[in-house]
What does this fold into?
Amino acid sequence: MTLEMKELEAAAEAVLFAAGEPVHIDRICLALELDRLSAEEVLRRLGDCCAFERRGIRLIRMEESWQLCSAPEYGRMIRRAFELRKSARLSQPALEVLAIIAYYQPTTRANVDQIRGVDSAYTVGLLLERKLIEECGRLQVPGRPRLYRTTEHFLRSFHLSSLEELPELPGMTEEQLHPGEPAQEDSGETAQA
It folds into this structure.
């Protein structure tokens, strides 16, 4: 079955709307019966259409997933309609811990503590509760400390498509990147958020 571009855009919009959460590109390809390149073209056109027509929704990309969300300029009206309070801002310590995890992921709480010079247990718990970070395994050393990384919710909250959009940290060495850990050779793999 072949559909015209407008029908494909409408079908993609329906799938994303029904999901209500990020949908991986592979699932979109399966639903629309398209190869990845064609599906990404349909999604790009849908996103352009939403923005150009100044609709109340936007299509955002996060790594390998896509999601429909409300246009940020209507946030005040949406909160008013649902009587939602503006979400609490993150404290300076929470932003520090989040930045360390974002740049050095996957990393342990001990590494965060070492970089900050203070205990970060409460702040890590707060970031987990807000779903900005998540556990992603354990370090294979005695005590097997938990490893943390950022989430798709982090990407959405900070209006990022991927971690590559984070600004570069000038002059960072591997020792500064992972204090207290032996330097590891780059295997060409990157951490997923």
Summary: The beta strands are 23-24, 57-62, 65-70, 107-108, 133-138, 146-150. Confidence is low (pLDDT under 50) at residues 182-193. The chain is about 45% helix and 15% strand. The radius of gyration is 20 Å.
